[in-house]
Every structure is written in C-alpha cells, then in structure tokens.
Amino acid sequence: MKITFLQIEEAFQRAVMGESVRSLAHDLGVDESTLRQHFRKSPTPKEVRTLAWQLFHAQQARARLDEAERREVDRLVSRARKVMQPGETAP
Questions:
Q1: Taking 80 as the threshold, does the pLDDT of residue 88 lie above it?
Q2: What residues contact 78, with CB distance under 8 A and at least 6 apart?
Q3: How many domains does the chain have?
Q4: pTM of this prediction?
Q5: pLDDT value at position 91?
Q6: Fewest Cβ atoms closer than 10 Å to its Cβ: which of 6, 31, 52, 73?
Q7: d(CA 18, CA 33)
Q8: Which pLDDT tens digit goes with each residue over 41-64?
C-alpha cells in the first residue's frame, strides 16, 4: 500500500504525542521501515517532543519574571534570532 502525504503528517503528529512507529505503521498497513524513512526527512518525533517541552518550560519561566526582566529576555531573544538567521528580520 502506498502512503499519502496526509497519512505521513498524521502519523508524525501521533508519533510526537507518543505513539510507537510500529503501531502507527500497523494501523496504516505499511512497513515500519517505510514510515521511519519518511520520518528521517525531518526532526524525529522524539526531538519535536523534547523541543516542545523545552519551549513550554521556557514560557513558564518567562511568565514568572517581572515586566522589566521580560523585556530584557525578549531583547536578547531578538538579538539571538538575528545572529542565527542572518538577512532575516526578527519578529
């Protein structure tokens, strides 16, 4: 069975939420290696899950700061974005 782009996207989202690639492949009727091959083209579900938790914790920490500290953090983030993505303007 051929897997569609939408099925890959849905499977990736489910994998990020913690479902195993083996069970997802079984549900879709494809070989596990086929699904893993598609997942290799982007960050792994585990990497996405880790980044999401890091972002969540960073937002929680930022919320505990007072207004002046938040402005300073925002300024530093803006500078870091400019360094990491030359030629693009930070939002």
A1: no
A2: 90
A3: 2
A4: 0.60
A5: 46
A6: 6
A7: 18
A8: 878 888 888 989 999 999 999 999
Same domain, 35 and 54: no
Interhelix angle 32-39/5-16, rounded to 10 degrees, is: 80
* Cβ neighbours of residue 49 closer than 8 Å, sequence gap 6 or more: 16, 17, 18
Question: How many C-beta neighbours within 10 Å does residue 53 have?
Answer: 10
Domain extent, residue 18, equals 5-42
Contact 21, 35 (CB under 8 A): yes
63/85: higher pLDDT: 63
Assess if residue 90 is contained within a domain. Answer: no
| Max Cα-Cα span within the chain | 57
pLDDT at 90: 45
Q: Determine which helix (DSSP H) or strand (DSSP E) holds 90, and give its type and residue range.
A: none
